[in-house]
Amino acid sequence: MISVALLFGLAWAILGCFKFKEELPAGILCLYGVAFAIFCGVLWECYEFTCDGLFAMNLQRYLSAGRALAGRAALLDTMGDLIAGLAGSLLFSCWSYWRLKKRSLLAQDLLFQEIQPGRLGKRPPDRRQQGLLGEVFLFQTV
Length: 142
What we know:
- The protein has helices spanning 2-15, 26-55, 72-102, 106-110, and strands at residues 63-64, 67-68, 127-131, 134-138.
- It is mainly alpha-helical.
- A hairpin with a 2-residue loop joins strand 3 (127-131) and strand 4.
- The chain is elongated.
- The two termini are 34 Å apart.
């Protein structure tokens, strides 16, 4: 669950690197986060499949006591990982959607933002800010 939440946050941070003419709706942000988390889960399963094929590492747990499993038993690890990723991303998406609707500026707190060149040498005072996961402290180091 935690890794899905981190992937969800990474998806929003990457999205913040792009400039949009208008603010994206909360539903689109949450759908994008779910899609990104699921995509990362699929890439992970491709990694496991490749390592199993090239190095016989049994990451997908298709071997039991040296014998290859067949049918449903061979798919349990892969499908369990994908279903857990989907469930976690949907759960985090619903929570994020609720938080975004409750506080519309929340998305700006999670996205990477461009640093103004004239402000690099100035150190603003430390401040508190309410973020997605509660109260966070923002510190700018020079």
